[in-house]
Specification:
It is built from 2 helices and no strands. By secondary structure, the protein is mainly α. The N and C termini lie far apart (136 Å).
């Protein structure tokens, strides 16, 4: 409805005008401060102090970031060393297992040979 739209537009315009008028009144109530040269020097000094403080924070953050990167590098190195050690351990266990298998096979062969020798010795004694 055009009448309703116009009423809403007028209401919004009035609200904006009221807001502008209130801002102007607020500015009139705020006392105007006049700064002399010493005030400007103090402000500049405070700004320099804040800049120095911010610089110190930035330097500390940079140092912390560098330390963090170094720690991450160390952790990666330790993890890689752990993996290499684990692989070596697997290889050692495999070699030990292979040697154990060979020893078991050699023992079986020695037992068979010993039994055969006993049998031969027994047969030779029976023949004589």
């Amino acid at each position: 409805d055009p009448v309703v739209d116009q009423a809403l537009d007028n209401r919004q315009l009035n609200t904006q005008e009221d807001s502008i008028q209130r801002e102007e009144e607020d500015q009139d109530r705020v006392p105007q401060i006049k700064l002399d040269e010493k005030d400007y020097e103090n402000i500049i000094s405070m700004n320099k102090e804040e800049d120095n403080f911010n610089l110190e924070i930035l330097e500390a953050e940079t140092v912390n970031q560098t330390k963090l990167q170094f720690m991450i590098h160390q952790i990666r190195n330790l993890e890689n060393e752990r993996i290499r050690t684990k692989q070596k351990n697997v290889e050692i266990v495999q070699q030990f297992s292979d040697q154990l298998y060979k020893l078991k096979f050699a023992k079986i062969a020695a037992d068979v040979a010993a039994n055969a020798a006993v049998d031969l010795l027994g047969k030779s004694q029976q023949e004589s």
